[in-house]
Amino acid sequence: MEQVENKTDLVWVILNEGLFAGCCGIHGIPTKQPHFGLWIKSGQQGKGIGKKVVNHMLPWGISNLDIEFIKYPVDKRNQKSIHLISQLNLKLSDNYEMGNQKKLDVDEYRLYKIPPTH
């Protein structure tokens, strides 16, 4: 909660029909290049919730935060996230390993406030 109090992160609870379905957040806001995270609980997956959340929250972040772009790191093994990304207007920009104990091989996608010229 320290990150929320310090305004470095914004975190939202996702409800579906009044029940907890997951959470999402924009993390590292002061860097001007924050990242977006999304988690949908297993019983709520496949209902289009992730797509609705991403289609709303990424544009909201770009419009309302003083940032250059939002990074959306996706684990290459997460087929549901990859399918979701394929439906969005995000640019693949990097690949790296992240995580402390459990290493993830991620592709990083970005949504720019002003698209890069290169």
Automatic annotation (TrEMBL):
Domain of life: Bacteria
Pfam family, one: Acetyltransf_3
InterPro entries per record: Acyl_CoA_acyltransferase, GNAT_dom
Sorted UniProt keywords: Transferase
Keyword Transferase tagged: yes
Cleavable signal peptide: none
Domain N-acetyltransferase: start-end pairs: 1-117
Gene3D superfamilies noted in UniProt: 3.40.630.30
GO MF annotation terms: acyltransferase activity, transferring groups other than amino-acyl groups
Keyword Transferase: yes
Protein name: N-acetyltransferase
Species classification: Bacteria, Pseudomonadati, Bacteroidota, Flavobacteriia, Flavobacteriales
